Amino acid sequence: MPVTVLGKDSALPNYARPEFTRVAPDLKLIEDELGGTRAMHDASETYIRKWSDEETDNYKFRRTCETFFEGLGRTLSAAVGMLFAKPPAVEWNRSRQPVEAHWANIDAEGTAGHVFVKRFAEAALRDGLALLMVDHPPAPAGVVVTAANEDELNLRPTWAFYPRAAVINWQTEVIDNVRTLTLLVLYEPATERDGEFGIRTLHRYRVLRLVPVEQDGTIVARAAEWRLWEMRGDGVRTEDFVDMGSGTFRNRAGQVASRLPVAIGYTGRTDAPMVARPPLLGVAWANLSHWQLSTDLRFNTIVAGFAQPTLIGRLVSDDQTGAAPPRLKIGPLVLVNIEQGGDFRWTEAPGSGLKQLAELVLEKLNQIAHLGVSFLQRDTRAPETAEAKRLDAAAENATLATAAQGIEDAVNLGFELHAWYLGIDRAGAPVATLSRDYGDTALAADIMTAYVRGVADAGLPVRLLLEAWQQGGRIKADEDLEALEMEVMANQQAIADQKATEAAKEGDGR
């Protein structure tokens, strides 16, 4: 999404809470890493430090000389793939008609419900939380809604989700002993035509409020309202914002919503509303360190590969008058005239630190793999039988499973809001369930390859690979992993010994 235009004036719609401004750099880091090599190169001045005496051209080359290893992206893709290896199961209860038809196009823009939920889940896993809003379109003024004209008027709930970077401000109150959101400000950019072929971005802010309804000086109810502001200026004055419209959230029967029609999907550790730690932030930082070290390794390897001309003493001028300042000429058939006692040589950089840099790069690669696997894998109690593993699955004792629960809760609250609009009570609302039984889903080939590369390239324990294969259905549940591990390690040693013997024979032959 476009860069959010934030403000510091709490009287204006673009004001951002301190909690948002604190997490914004982490969200930007994750966004850049998921953008791959080109995005990281574009943002490299933020992540690659410039040396104090470094020339600008050298710095530009150094900060973009290495490609970016997309460890964070691979981990996120694996997490989403594991959760949606099977589409979410939906129990319709008393809402099959017409919610099932709405589910086939949940956002009224052609997106199927299971695809929408997958995108919502990816945003929540990426950022630690995401927001789902169920909009309630109002009926035209003076029109009585009936079963006959409801479809014609397109009066149906629609779902939309907002990434965390769009939720810039919020307020809460304790209402009826429950901590309740009473204000949400959502950055909602739009585009319009600019000239014959161009477009331009419109910076808009949707403000949702839960407004007290008073009677004889006493609050008797709450009403959910919305207002849309568009920024047309620098966003520092009241005059910079134009009111684009407002309304009240009502259901099909005209009843006013008593809560904001939103659901928050938390996937990271949270201790306050709208605050959560991105669950893969540790992977992102390790991935950044890996790239920084890889950049240093690449640049220094290039430098070490080129000998540098070194002059000791002073050049003797080629000009017989001696008036022209001497210049060092480098190339074939070029004579370098040096005063007596001087010397000229080609000096190669020692490259003594390259090995240490390479080890640090490998260490960070190892860390990325460990952090990623610890998020994707369940914590198991070893040794376990197949039945015990199924009990672990039911207990949902993994970080990914915990995140899945947060996503699932948000989707089911969305179903409740959807059903409320249609006049269906909570008990009759649909209930969605995300897949948790990873053990019944064979490990995908790309994930298997990632584990193998982790063992081969990053030095991960063989046992980690075997456990992943077993949980992914590639190894029988009752297989003796300890014996299998010893066999694999013995085979690895035999291969290493064979290579050493062949290398020794080649050395003797020379």
Question: Quick summary of this structure?
Answer:
The chain is 40% helix and 19% strand.
Task: Give an overview of the whole structure.
The chain is of the alpha+beta class. Among the domains are: 308-347, no CATH class; 442-510, no CATH class. It has 14 helices and 13 strands. It has helices at residues 18-34, 36-42, 44-47, 56-63, 71-83, 96-103, 113-127, 281-304, 354-376, 386-395, 399-421, 445-458, 462-471, 481-509, and strands at 89-91, 129-135, 158-163, 167-175, 178-187, 190-194, 198-215, 218-231, 241-248, 262-266, 308-312, 343-347, 431-433. The strands form four sheets. Strands 4, 5, 6, 7, 8 and 9 form a six-stranded antiparallel sheet that branches. A three-stranded antiparallel sheet has the order 3-2-10. Helix 1 (18-34) packs across helix 8 and helix 5 (71-83) packs across helix 7. The two termini are 62 Å apart. Residues 379-384 and 390-397 have low confidence and may be disordered.
Largest sheet: 6 strands, antiparallel
Average pLDDT taken over every residue: 84
Helix content: 40-55%
Strand content: 15-25%
Which residues sit in consecutive blocks of at least 5 with pLDDT less than 50?
379-384, 390-397
List SSEs in N-to-C order.
Answer: HHHHHEHHEEEEEEEEEHEEHHHEHHH
- Total helices: the number is 14
Globally, the shape reads flat
Structural class label: alpha+beta
Q: How big is the Rg? A: 31 Å
Number of strands: 13
| Terminal residue distance | 62 Å
